[in-house]
Specification:
This is Transcription elongation factor GreA. The chain is α/β, with parallel strands linked by helices and 158 residues long. Helices cover 39% and strands 26% of the residues.
């Protein structure tokens, strides 16, 4: 079975979503289905079919979250000694060697990745290029527009 690396924050977010789905949405949908059933003929009852469809999606997401949580390896990077090396969960500041533009990313699991929040999936090209490197190293990232060189400015365990 595949294990999924996950940060503490990512695990907490999944647990919160699971709690919301099971304690809020599931009972609400059951009630909506019951109310829609009372409206009569189920064949032509749009409210009933919509609620059942949404219930199916919620149940699928609950099963997905439970599977992810069961196979998650939660890594708390704050408990790992700082060596200046890029590892899963670290926050990395990199600078484009050509333009000197600096950007900071956290390397996270697939479920947590969100480029707008500057969270990169551990499987992304940039993260793969950074993992295992040290502060001060220069890495080359292959992009559709060509190779880009970045210098690792700082690695933080936050």
């Amino acid at each position: 079975m595949t294990k999924y690396p996950m940060t503490v924050q990512g695990a907490r977010a999944l647990e919160e979503e699971h709690a919301h789905l099971t304690k809020v949405l599931r009972p609400k949908l059951s009630q909506e289905i019951g109310t829609a059933r009372e409206l009569g003929d189920l064949k032509e009852n749009a409210e009933y079919h919509a609620a059942r469809e949404q219930q199916g999606m919620v149940e699928a997401r609950i099963r997905d979250i439970e599977g992810r949580m069961q196979n998650a390896v939660v890594i708390d990077v704050t408990t790992i000694a700082h060596t200046g090396k890029v590892i899963f969960g670290t926050t990395v500041e990199i600078a484009n060697c050509e333009t000197d533009e600096s950007v900071t990313y956290q390397i996270v699991g697939e479920d947590e990745a969100n480029i707008k929040q500057r969270k990169l999936s551990v499987g992304s090209p940039i993260a793969r290029a950074l993992i295992g490197k040290q502060e001060g190293d220069v890495v080359v990232v292959q992009t559709p527009g060509g190779a880009i060189e970045y210098e690792i400015v700082e690695v933080r365990h936050i």
